[in-house]
Amino acid sequence: MTLSVATLSLAHVTSPRLTRLTPETYLQRIRAESARFRAVLGEAPSGARVPACPDWDTDDLLWHLAEVQWFWSRIVGHRPAGPDGLEHPLRPGDRAGLLAAYDAWSGDLVAALDGVAPDEQAWSWAPEQTVGFTLRRQAHEALVHGLDAEQTVGAVTPLDPALAADGVAEALDVMFGGDAPEWGRIEPGPYVVRVDLVDVDVSLWAAPCTFLGTDPESGHCYDGPHVLHVADPGREPDAVVSGTAGNLDAWLWKRSGADGVDVTGDPAAYDAFWAAVSPPID
Questions:
Q1: pLDDT tens, 112-150?
Q2: N or C: which end of the chain has fewer CB within 10 A?
Q3: How far apart are CA 8 and CA 17, in angstroms?
Q4: CB-hemisphere CA count at 13 Å for 16?
Q5: What is the CATH number of the domain that holds 155?
Q6: Cα–Cα distance for residue pair 174/136, rounded to 1 Å
Q7: Is residue 128 part of a domain?
Q8: Dihedral angle, C-alpha 44, 50, 55, 59, nearest 10 °
Q9: Residues 47-103: pLDDT tens digits?
Q10: 159, 246 in Cβ contact below 8 A?
Q11: Parent domain of 168
Q12: What pTM was computed for the model?
């Protein structure tokens, strides 16, 4: 049985929201995951390499999240204006300066988000242009880079299951998939894949497909594998990918291998899914 264009369109009228957390929880997780990141890197040697990002050492990782949190604190603080005209800060020249910058800008991000309605308009690089997008995205940014920090020092702790489950959904919704912009189109494929998060009793559905389009601003052609996070299509999946939320989130972000990830069903369906989610993300 194949998934027709009409069926896919109907299933994706609204993006599934099974894993979404409350705005207050996202903000709490930004605080907690940012503090975890800081505690680990505060004691890490500067020259240690980051396993998932081998071009980075610990100071590069520290600067990366510091600059990300600086950027989004300014985006939210100056909403709905976009990033045009923002003057990016210079990277401090030593570890003490990096830590001070991180502390200041991490605090700025929490302060900018605290008490703001998630449906307020705010710029983002994604179709969703709200403060809520930044809340969700920055909770996952801090979670993943906290894992990077722990892997760098060889002291990995479990990911928060609820946030990791939403991280799997966000990977399908945003990082590897999502609706096409006006200049692109999506060509449906024949498969649906169920993603079972066994420790939180949640199943997500993904439809591997193909994105076709050229960005008129950059001239870049983005033709290639894509995925849509769809509602339960009411039929048996062609393949099932299962594991704990933490294992699947780390796997999708290329922070771990396939240990702890089980695959059953049609190999062609899994191959189509993997083609869409295989690129690395920093």
A1: 999 999 999 999 999 899 999 999 999 999 999 999 999
A2: N
A3: 17
A4: 23
A5: 1.20.120.450
A6: 11
A7: yes
A8: -20
A9: 999 999 999 999 999 999 999 999 999 999 999 999 999 999 999 999 999 999 999
A10: yes
A11: 5-18+162-277
A12: 0.93
